[in-house]
Amino acid sequence: MELIGKQISVLASSVYVSLALLCAFAYIVIADPGIRKQSTKKLFFIVISMTVAIMIGEGFKYLLGRYRPVFLFEHGKYGLHFFTTNWLMNSSPSGHTIRAFSFFTALGLLFKRYMSLFIVLALMIGLSRILLTAHYPSDVLFGAFIGIMTAIWMYNY
């Protein structure tokens, strides 16, 4: 089960997502700098939704600094350690879940017919983070909230 959780989690890994966002943004700047094509507008919406959601999430991680479940199980540490950049210790909100829900919600808003499929994929990533004991369920819910609300906000904007 742990192997499956790791394979699902890698879909929203910060390294891969950051590289994909950088490439997508470079494509937009080079291929359609005025953002005139419909396909470029859709890609720009996804890039902006994810970028804003990630920025909000990283801000909360820094502010809250909630210990990950592994620190409870291995060191007996639980709770918040505010204003810390020790990212390996910071649990809330779940960055994987933020990236997954902002991406899949944005796709669902663009392609409404597939919204349920996209939400199931995002849920799988969020649940994998709990199964791997990388996050508490509340971290995943907080990340999902940020991802969903940011995509909706950007869509309406």
Structure description:
With 157 residues, the protein is mainly alpha-helical. It has one domain. Helix content is 72%, strand content 0%. It has 7 helices and no strands. The longest helix is centred in the first third of the chain and has 27 residues, at 38-64. The chain starts with a helix and ends with a helix. The model has no long low-confidence stretch (mean pLDDT 85).
Number of beta-strand segments: 0
- Cα(first) to Cα(last) distance is 40 Å
How would the global form be characterised? elongated
SSE topology string: HHHHHHH
Structural class: mainly alpha
Low-pLDDT segments, ≥5 res: none
Number of domains: 1
Largest sheet: none
* Helicity, as a percent range: over 70%
Oligomer: single chain
- The whole-angstrom Rg is 16 Å
Question: What percentage of the residues does DSSP assign to strands (E)?
Answer: under 5%
Supply the number of helical segments: 7
What's this, in brief?
With 157 residues, this protein is mainly alpha-helical. Helix content is 72%, strand content 0%.
Which features does this protein show?
157 residues, mainly alpha, elongated
Secondary structure blueprint with pairings:
Blueprint: H1 2-9, H2 14-31, H3 38-64, H4 69-75, H5 95-110, H6 115-131, H7 137-156
Helix pairs in contact: 1-6, 2-3, 3-5, 3-7, 5-6, 5-7, 6-7
